[in-house]
Amino acid sequence: MVRSCGRGIPGGAYVGALFLLIHSVTVRGAALKQEVALDSGSTVLNHSMSLLQRMETLLALGNSSDVTLKVQTINTDEVKVIQAHSLVLSLQSDVFEEMLLGRNGSALFLRETADCAAVFDKFVRYLYCGDISVRLDQAISMHKLASKYHVWALQQGLTQYMTQHLSSDSPMGHVIGWYNYALQIGDVVLRDSCLQYLSWNLSSVLQSGEWGSISEDLLLSLLQRSDLILQSELELYDALEAWISQNKPVTSTIERALRAVRYGMIPPQHLFRLQKQSPLLQKHYESIRDLLYLAFQFHSASPIQLAKYFDVNCSIFTPRNYLSTSWGSPWLLNNPTRDDRSFSFQTQLGPSGHDSSKRVTWNALFSPRWLPLSARSTYTEMGAMQPTRTDAGRPRIIVTPATSSPDFAGVSFQKTVIVMARQQGKVVVRHVYNFHQSTEEAGDFLVDADLQRRVSEYLIDSSLYLHVVIKPLYHTLIVSKK
Question: From residue 340, how far is each of 141, 289, 345, 369, 446 by CA, in Å?
């Protein structure tokens, strides 16, 4: 009596299939793996590629097939027929193993959605060969099949593929679709990766055809974030107006979205223009009248006076990561490992119109090899900071105001350093580092980057592309009694 080595696989089927696999590899006289111990030496002959080729041929020709997969596309009469081998299916998927145990006859009937049915033959090929070619538009379908049939290695590989190809070009975009799918299946890693990509590269997303397909929930979620990277708040308002015009959501959604715009970050001359020229704002003016009134107060009064009576820590007074010149400056470092660099730039003291003519000068210092704070020389006799360099150090960046001013009262500055990189041929945000006014540098800046390698993922054509953003934050000084 022959006993099955696989769970629930009939002995005859198991032996026959196993003999077929072994025979397909050895028929031309090549052993899959041979170890010969002679004295103190050994030899390994690896013919695994030959095995994979024969497995692929086995699937293509259907030799000695003992199961027929009949894959019907749901709501159609279309049926795809694949000749397969129960041993291979059972070894790769416990779901297939259970289905094969309960089948009647030699056929296994499967029902799949149109997108999954279209790639089912590629999925089965993976079970035989362990490799697969995937396009952006096939990733979700393949991920569905891998999840449904418990092929966990393929599922994890597809999640990694998707997180690494968020910046790839596709005709209608794919990141928002991947985000919605990740949210549906509860894939936190993929969901957060998509959300981070959308937040950090929002300007390019706003200009793409993908923006119009964003869901209401995702739109409202993005509007609440302070880490959005874009040119200005006005750019976000214009994109929101275009989205509403295209999708025509219910009034409650429109009003929630409009109230998430940070009108205090829009210069008053542009607010006046929106009041007169924006059909959307005119139609829903009453729902945001209080926010516009507060924004105009913010722009006309001293922030110190405003802070006595209003909570200036709320979102309408909190900047996002704006790339316009009023808020920071790009910084290109050619051959960044060569030596220390420094540069100066100016920003507006604050977003308030009252501060629009006031400027703060900032000094930025970059070193490719710098000791920790505790081991660093501090100041020279002239008062200038003198770094202590060492080959054992790591990249550091310091951003400090060049001067101090009484105008700084009630204002603190969050400093953000954006690192750009090229992925799939497109320049995108690779990393974002935040540090507060009380801290002169980002302690984890480029901690994992290998800038010595010319092909480092942090470099573009051997150069480091940075953008330094200064975010002024006002603080409530006096809480008025009610």
Answer: 49, 51, 17, 8, 15
d(CA 159, CA 156): 5
User: Which residue spans within 296-445 are E strands per DSSP?
Assistant: 321-322, 328-334, 341-348, 359-370, 394-401, 411-423, 426-435
At 396, give phi and psi (nearest 5°).
-135, 150
At a CB cut-off of 8 Å and minimum separation 6, what does 169 contact? 424, 425, 426
Cα–Cα distance for residue pair 364/333, rounded to 1 Å: 12
DSSP string, 177-225: HHHHHHHHHT-HHHHHHHHHHHHHTHHHHHTSTTGGG--HHHHHHHHT-
- C-alpha distance from residue 376 to each of 362, 392, 439, 440, 451 (Å): 21, 13, 15, 13, 22
Question: pLDDT by residue (tens digit) across 381-420?
Answer: 444 555 444 445 678 899 988 888 777 777 888 999 999 9
Q: What number of CA atoms fall less than 13 Å from residue 229's CA on the CB side?
A: 24
Cα separation values, 459 from 176, 330, 336, 428, Å:
27, 15, 9, 12
Q: 426 — phi, psi (to 5°)?
A: -120, 140
Is 41:48 a contact under the CB 8 Å cutoff? Answer: no
| Maximum CA extent, the chain | 94
Tokens of 364: 């930025």
Distance CA 160, CA 164 (A): 6
Residue 82: enclosing H or E segment and its boundaries?
A: strand 79-84
**Both tokens of residue 294?**
């507060």
User: Which three-class secondary structure state does DSSP give residue 46?
Assistant: coil
SS3 33: coil
Task: Count other C-beta atoms under 10 Å from residue 235's C-beta.
Answer: 17
CA 291, 296, 297, 302 torsion-angle sign: positive
Question: What is the rounded (10 degree) CA torsion for 52, 58, 64, 66?
Answer: 80
Is the pTM here over 0.85, yes or no? no
Q: Which H or E element spans position 274?
A: helix 268-277
Residue type present at position 7: R
Alpha helices, DSSP H only, in 35-138? 48-61, 86-92, 94-101, 114-118, 120-129
pLDDT tier, 188 (very low <50, low <70, confident <90, very high otherwise): very high
For residues 279-312, one letter each, b for 16 or more C-beta atoms within 10 angstroms of the residue's C-beta and e for the rest, the string is ebbeebeebbeebbebbbebbebebbebbeebeb
